[in-house]
Design goal:
With 195 residues, the chain is of the alpha+beta class. The protein has helices at 34-40, 67-77, 84-93, 96-104, 108-112, 119-137, 147-160, 165-178, 184-194, and strands at residues 6-14, 18-23, 26-31, 45-54, 59-64. The protein has nine helices and five strands. Strand 1 and strand 2 form a beta hairpin.
């Protein structure tokens, strides 16, 4: 049972790999993915959902901007051969919907495109998580007012594909205004046509 559910407070430091959130004079060093980094950029205050990983030599906090990302992280680290750092790398290289879809559609190639994930690990993730992913997706539909999560995921994906953050953000803002309920994957596809 985890001790921490979330940490909120002043965002004292932010890099692509870590966030330091200060609360009551204590700075929490939290490991993050590029998806969460994209969601936190430009923020002074932050709230991250937490997954605590306890090892012999350390207690490490991993933070997530969305419940969906944390759920995928928890599922990934339940797979033999995928540790927390590999799971974070997967969430930095692929969007949460991409990982979900890769597992549901047996897309070994996409999963093994992540540094540190081989063919056997990708296949094991698909076999172990296919049924679990199907169950968690039912509650994961994008509802009105959730477009920021989709936009953040899309922005993260575009930046990882090599597009400029500012230009990508402008295109995504326009697309979200035109279609408020659009999902992250469709956002990326439409943005790629305009960039």
């Amino acid at each position: 049972m985890a001790i921490y559910e979330y940490v909120s407070g002043r965002l004292a430091e932010l890099t692509p790999a870590i966030a330091v959130i200060e609360r009551n004079g204590i700075g929490f060093l939290i490991q993050i993915s590029l998806q969460t980094h994209a969601a936190l950029r430009g923020q002074e205050e932050a709230k991250l959902l937490i997954e605590e990983v306890i090892r012999e030599d350390a207690h490490v906090l991993f933070g997530f901007a969305t419940p969906e990302e944390r759920e995928i992280f928890r599922l990934l680290i339940s797979v033999t051969g995928i540790g927390p750092n590999t799971a974070r790398m997967m969430l930095s290289s692929l969007t949460t919907p991409d990982i979900r879809r890769a597992i549901q559609t047996d897309n070994v190639a996409l999963l093994k495109s992540v540094k540190g994930v081989g063919v056997k690990t990708a296949q094991r993730a698909i076999i172990d998580l296919r049924d679990k992913i199907g169950k968690t997706e039912e509650g994961g539909a994008i509802l009105p007012g959730q477009d920021n999560t989709s936009k953040d995921e899309a922005l993260s994906a575009l930046v990882m594909l090599g597009f400029g953050r500012t230009e990508s953000a402008k295109v995504l803002d326009q697309l979200v205004r035109e279609q408020p309920l659009i999902g992250a994957e469709d956002l990326v596809k439409l943005a790629l046509k305009k960039l």
